[in-house]
Amino acid sequence: MAQSFPYTYYSCDCYDSKAATVAAKRASAQLQPEEDEEGRTFDPRNPRSNYSLYPLEHLLYCQDCQQVRCPRCVIEETLNWFCPSCLFEVPSSVVKSDGNRCTRNCYNCPVCTSPMNVSSLEDPNDPSTSGGPWILSCPYCRWSTLETRIEFEKHTAITAQLSRIANGGKPILTAKERDKDREKRMEQDKRKSRDILSGSEDSPTGDQQKSDEVPSHDELFSNLAAFYKSQLAAQTPSNPFSPHDINFSSPSSFSRIMNLYSTTTSKKQKREKPTPMRETASTLEGLTIHDPSTDAAAIERIRKDGWSSTLSPTQKLAQPNPNIRFSSELRPVAALLCTKRGKRCRNCRHILSKPESKITSTRYKIKLLALNHIPRLSLRALEPPAAPGTPAPPPFDYSALKSGIPQHFVLQLANPLFDPIRVTLATPSTTPGKVQSRVTILCPQFEVGANTDVWDDALSSSVSPVKSGGASSSIEAGKIWDRGRNWTSVVIEVVPGFLRDLLAKEGEGEELDEDEDVLEIPVFVRLQWEADVNAEERGLGDSMGKKGEREKREEAFWTVVGVGRIVRL
Amino acid sequence: MSSQPAARPSADRRTSAIQKRVSILPKPSSMVIDPSVLIAQHAQLTGTHPITIGPNAVLHPHCKISSVQAPVVLGEGVVIYEKAKVGVGIGNADTESRRSSVVPSPGSRDSLRVDGTVLGRNVVIETSTVVEAAEIGEGSVVEVNAVIGQGCVIGRFCTISASSVLPPNTHLPDFTVVYGASERRIDYTTQARPELQEAKMMMHTKQIEIFKKLVPNNVTKWTS
To answer: What ranges does the record list as Basic and acidic residues composition bias (chain A) (predicted)?
Structure first.
């Protein structure tokens, strides 16, 4: 609870209500008496309530269910994908095929993650026609692709160019070329082994050198993928009992089904196990043999280039291949795409919030906020008015409540609705938790005016019940403290509990938990008002519903008011 | 020009009140200012030790050069932006009055031995920085709001990125980039490519030319 005192959290009962219904369904026997469920007070210290309390600003409101909707009881749906760097929308088909990274020129620095620029390497004394070779460079930490010896010919289509250049400037083969190359080399290997068998010694130096260099991550993957594909293809037709063969009209499966039912033959030819797949046997098939010399080389490299040539875990994990170790293996990281999301009510699937689909716009088409439907509760300390002439007393310290000394607070409800509401507040007389504070709402039932136009109030010269200034009103049970156009405030008396008793008991194993000294008051709020029948509902029941018909509405929810911290005496 | 006592314009030429206020401050005993220097209005040069400013340097309005404790030398093409402060001891007044949280530099008595501040060719000191360094090498950039402690020696083509703080007596080799939470790395790109360095310097001279067109020059106030 990092928010500063005093605060108000609203409870969304989405989990509890669901659990209750499930329990009721599962056990038709009376597991819990209904009354118990109703009479239970909300405990803000319950571990579960941690997940149901939200500030009012975080909540949405479903007009159809007429309930608050918290982040747990909304469904999010992705409207579109876009790159946060170039603000271009990426179609979802491209996201599926190419992954969730920008395929334009948006790259982040692998060292410090700031967005990189395409900049020219042109020599000012010897300008080239095209503007010179280009590099990606980081404007913040000054890393550039030049450090991994990558230069680009054009300043556009960086992704396509980057995918063709390995670190060090060597070209990367495309998938097709790789396949062709692999086939060619396999052919060579076969011939060579035949040659060895026949006894004619060929000088293997050229090939030896080629196989010496460690294949790249991508190369390995494609080799492995090709190998297993060929293995699968080799096995499936030969094995009629393979689970891949789910073709009921084929004779093999037909015979298998027959076997299932005939008890005599089944045991005999039961299940010749499919021959296990051959493992990879050469580099061309994706086999990598750990070479201790690479480790030695790595150690030697650290010794020579120092610690700064190695990567931090964060830098490694951001890389496409997280197994690299040295800064010379870094690749620019393509920008991750972002999404725009709409939110729906989990119960009725109505849209609660929907942003405009245009990427550059930050506005919303639909946005049903709890702010506009639920009254806002706010608390502040009631301080005795300073006597004229004396300097103003220091502001009330919410983080130093004094145990046992009654303190008055003003609880104010502001009504966002366009109809006046009747409010009933309820709170347990002592707060739950180990530190028990006594709480009394002096006026638990009152009315709050409608959220009318600001000027209505000012223009209507009729005698309004609004009292001017709270100073004249007295703290009296059953009377509101103050009232305005669309707000009413009442007084709460709080006697903060004692921490001392607990400290005395600590020897018996009772220990003060973290934040146990925070004074939080659960307040149950019930609202009643008369509202115009919903436009949609009116449309539905057109035959019987007349325009201007009003219906009674009711709403009830728990809130938790954080008053402050009780100070140790 | 070198040892003129209290060079200042005569009272009748002064128009604004701010200039009057500036002129109350102690004047450097000797100032060597190249005639091609651009010193904007409201730039402040104070202190008793000599201040030397090389050709084509640019001092933006409200920057402060202080030679109260030690001499200051600005090389050719140095650009000092608004509210930047250069000179040994210039951050101290600040540290005591405003930023008590900044790590205090070793007592100012020790720092008196410092020989002054030397900014090399084409050094850029950006807005709101405090530079008390002993030396900054050619082509280095000190970005916005950075603080460079006393006795720092910074090499050529270094970049001190925004809001970095260099503790006193730091030595940075050439091409160092200080970024993030005092992380350092070597800018191999600029190091390996002299043509990039050259391009950078060319851009710098072009920028100075534009400054000379845009910013009214008030250098006569300090040279006459």
So the answer is: 175-195
